[in-house]
Design goal:
This protein has 255 residues and is of the alpha/beta class. 38% of the residues lie in helices and 25% in strands. It has a domain at 90-153. The protein contains 10 helices and 10 strands. The strands form 2 sheets. It has a 6-stranded mixed beta sheet with strand order 6-7-8-3-9-10, sandwiched between helices. The protein starts with a strand and ends in a 6-residue tail after the last helix.
């Protein structure tokens, strides 16, 4: 059953088409990867799904409901979490406090309840704290909980980003090149973490340029070139597709 469906998505910048009539489906529990060379339109497509950009044409449907005109915060409330490329942490806050921020978009208590310290708000705070600690356990960061977030090594900062996204209890997780800049050991640890999330049934859309990373993780792969889908299939099918080899993989396939 499909959780996310992009239909005929198109977006241009100054008259240049970055995404050209792209169709994309992500099934419940699937890890779908999107790959392609630089300038293929991966980031634009990612931002159309996450709500950071609006499409010039086409629709985005999530769990049967059209969301392409929803702002990002409304998509977050609906269960879509985004982990952007590059490590982003809130300086001056602990690791635990950073993770708790991830629940902000899904809280039920309003501003009045918060400033008045109403029982509902206090109960929600306790729930968020418990969830944040649970997410730190899942990402292997429990021992770092009380440390300043900006002192974490880069690999752990990526784990922190994931923990923060998970704190909102998403149904769909969008990952924008999470392995970028990581060393081999950090990349392997991140892949293991993502595999554990997939095993837990979380649906994910992964935009990545590292073919080996994608091959290890993805159930299916969509390949973009010049804003268009040129291939779609399992990792094994993609690695031997002549169009993909010509546009992107080149000698890497035979290496």
């Amino acid at each position: 059953m499909t959780l996310l469906h992009g239909d005929g998505l198109r977006r241009s910048f100054d008259g240049v088409l970055a995404v050209r009539d792209v169709d994309l489906e992500v099934a419940h529990g699937e890890l779908r990867a999107v790959i392609g060379p630089n300038g293929a339109g991966k980031s634009t497509l990612f931002n159309l799904i996450g709500g950071q950009l609006r499409a010039d044409a086409g629709t985005v449907t999530y769990d049967g409901q059209r969301i392409d005109r929803w702002p990002p915060h409304r998509r977050a409330m609906g269960g879509i979490a985004v982990v952007f490329q590059g490590a982003r942490v809130f300086r001056g806050m602990t690791v635990l406090e950073n993770v708790m921020v991830g629940a902000h978009g899904t809280t039920r208590s309003g501003f009045l309840a918060a400033v008045s310290r109403l029982p509902r708000h206090r109960r929600e705070e306790r729930e968020i704290l418990a969830t944040a600690r649970e997410c730190l356990d899942r990402t292997g960061l429990a021992e770092w909980a009380d440390r300043p977030a900006d002192t974490l090594p880069l690999g752990q900062q990526r784990g922190l980003q994931l923990a923060r996204a998970l704190c909102g209890r998403p149904r769909l997780l969008l990952l924008d090149e999470p392995a970028s800049g990581l060393r081999a050991g950090e990349r392997a640890a991140l892949a293991s973490l993502i595999e554990s999330l997939r095993a837990g049934g979380l649906t994910m859309l992964l935009v990545e340029h590292d073919v080996a990373f994608v091959t290890r993780l993805a159930d299916r792969v969509t390949v973009l070139d010049l804003g268009q889908v040129i291939a779609e299939g399992t990792p094994a099918e993609i690695r031997t597709d002549e169009r993909v080899v010509a546009a992107y993989l080149g000698d890497e396939v035979s290496a």
